[in-house]
Amino acid sequence: MTQSLLAHLQHGLVRIATISPRVLASPPAQPRRASVALILRIRPAAEDEVWLRSKWRNGEALEEDAHLFPSMMQQDANGTMSTEARLRHFFTLPWVQRGTPELLFIKRAVRMNDNWSSHVAFPGGRRDEEDENGLYTAMRETWEEVGIDLAEKDFLHVGHLEDREITSSLGKRLLMILSPHVFVQLSPFSPPPSLQPSEVATVLWVPLSRLFTPTPAWGTIHLDIARHTPRHSLLRRFLRLVVGRMTFRCILLPNAPTAMTLIDAAEVLPDVPVPAAPVDDDDDVTKLLTQAERQYVAEHTEPLQLWGLTLGMTLDFLAHMATYQMHQAPEEALTMRALRRVLSHTPSSWLLGSPQRSLLARKAPSIVEVFPRFSYPDINFWIWVFGWRYRAIQRKWEQSMGTEMERRAHWSGLALAAFYSCVRRALILTTLLRCLGLASLLSPTVLPTPTNAEGLWVHPVKRARHTVQSMSIEDMVTLVTGSGYGHGPCVGNIQAIPSIDFPGLCLQDGPASLRGVDYLTAFPPGITVVGTFSKELMRRRGTAMQRARKDHTAINWSFDDFDYANAQKVASYSDVAMVFVTSFSGEGYGSVPVVKPVDTAANIGDRNNLALWNGGEKLIKEVAAVNNNTIVVIHAEWIEHPNVTAVPWAHMPGSESGTAVENVLYGEYNPSGRLPYTNAKKRSDYPADVLYNADVPHPQSNFTEGLFVDYRHFDAQPTEPRFEFGFGLSYTHFHYAALDVECLGEYGPDWNHKWGHHAAPHGLPSWLFEDAVRVSFTVRNTGAKDRREVPQVYLGFPPHSGEPPKVLRAFDRVWIPRNHTVHIHHILSYYDLSVWNETHQQWRRSPGPYEIFVGASSRDIRLRHSFL
């Protein structure tokens, strides 16, 4: 197979070198041009690499070994060797015949507002005014982007493929003319690349056998065409509504790069640190990957997608490798059949009605491979209807092949123009039909509720109805009412109903996972070192002790909750005093030992206060009185004490609670947790209080606070909390900027008309959960440490909607290296923007302006933006 592939590669390169390509002149209205470099090499086989390296030193070979390296042979007896002669000599070398042909690709760096961001491409770029020609542009851009000097004698410029027109998404506007140039590396060893981080993320050599094969790994890419239009919200919504998505064919390539930038390598390789500071294009930030690292990246990342313009140029190059003689060698005939299988079901075949085995598909595969489909079937249908002009151009093209007319006309440009003309006509007609209401097949559907008893729900609904009909009123009440530990094995229970064979439910267990542990063998809630029988745990304890000795860390303790004198003694000669306190939310059984003083939290039954247990509040005050660096793990009234310098809020501790607190206090881990509730300064600040004494056996709560609970209540009242909802500290600082709110939905700023005069069904319509607004902003780590931030997005409803001042709608936990900026996007649906209207019985939009708040907590708002 390798010999056959090399034969076809030689055939294709000779064709490119001997056939003059078509050169397109730039129109006066659009003079911009660009060039790219298709670089091929032959990677020596493993058995050849050792002896080749022994004869190849510092890019030079001995005179007696020059015949092994074509880059050392520049002339024959009659003068300079022709490109064709050098190619034929190159493919006769033994190490070439046993080698593997590969093609160089790059993955573009991630850049904002760049249509080529993260794309798989060939090195190249736009032509500068001082560039002599397109060849010079390709060589200059390759040197700037990947550090490969194509002017060296190790590279041979074979020729270039036909110029290509780069147009806008719908082919209406010419952007530039592109010239693809083909190079062959004559030496067995490639120079190490040096990447420009602002342009290139990775470099990879792809075996040609993965492309010139009957079974390439085909995939699809879905493109939102509205993203590639001018920044006008109405135009974007219109295109997204009419066009939907475009689907392109792509070839999946293994992501096994030869070189990466240090930033990209740090994201996928476990042992690569992130660069300490922002890098310039002149800095050397390239990491050359070993074979093991390449395999690791390929196994832990998604395949790369070769599509669009780069796929078209790749297929045009492969078309030169195929032969069309009637009598071919067996392996050549096999390759021809394979190529026809690859191109037998091209997009032009199933979209524009082209013959599947047309000569055009073999001569110019990029023209038939890069055509997209659309997500709406009616658009595809009308493109096929209007495709008669494209099919006529294709027939004329095939009739002109082999004649002088083939070279005169720019057939590929005519075919592309005809295709996009079909697209524009189809879009216009589809828009008119939809305005007349003839596109009902594309209207959103309402999800059926289980009560419809259709499909898989038939048997469950029937069984549920039978069960309910056989239940008494008492059974129904029991099924939906919880009971305490006296009516079951657990702390909270749903009692059993024997009449319907319902065994009951256990809603809350005790700390040992079982309420009653008599005659049971269960692990205790607190695990000790001996209980684990783990030598590894003991070894890690010894390691921690050694570290404490090197850090000059000495730990003193006082475990008695009520021995305040000893606690003060220990704290007085310590640099840092950590006080651990707790308070359960449930019943106070055993909260105070009998031999100790009566605690203010002691009670039998439900709690009657918010105080800490076991004298915790007094213990904190006693310790803080003698140590000015007291750290308390939780909070209460002692927070006002000036000597309390930090409050790590540990919540429910687990087996690694001590390790977690240590890592945070020593700065090894950034405490990126956020409070999911508000801490008030006074008990009276909360919107509701505990009912301590009831005059009736079964008191009733009317929930008069409504929606104004927690932070919503504090925002609505002039009440300053101690720690607000979403609050949390960090060891670094973050800067928020560039807030952008973009309306995405197709129903405009008012979607109430979508309901009509009908109340909301049991199963809400699917359109209510479609994308309505995109919130975008940036967060930059301006501190000195790599840390995580939790940006929060709050929504403010119109003032007269009756809603709280703002409600949390989105958040994320984002890793941000120091001096780096991360772009964050959140999507809000129509449901997120709606308010329940009791009169209409619908989720509706409130009249008036909405407001987006972005910040680090419910009170720490950094950005805000109003929209209609």
TrEMBL record:
* GO CC terms: extracellular region
- Give all residue intervals belonging to the Nudix hydrolase domain: 31-228
Q: Organism's domain of life?
A: Eukaryota
Any Pfam family matching the protein: Glyco_hydro_3_C
Which keywords has UniProt assigned to this entry? Carbohydrate metabolism, Cellulose degradation, Glycosidase, Hydrolase, Polysaccharide degradation
Q: In which pathway does it act?
A: Glycan metabolism; cellulose degradation
Under which main EC class is this enzyme filed? Answer: hydrolase
Q: InterPro entries, alphabetically?
A: Cellulose_deg_GH3, CoAse, Fn3-like, GH, Glyco_hydro_3_C, Glyco_hydro_3_C_sf, Glyco_hydro_3_N, Ig-like_fold
The Swiss-Prot or TrEMBL record describes its family as follows: Belongs to the glycosyl hydrolase 3 family.
What name goes with this protein? Answer: beta-glucosidase
Native species: Malassezia equina
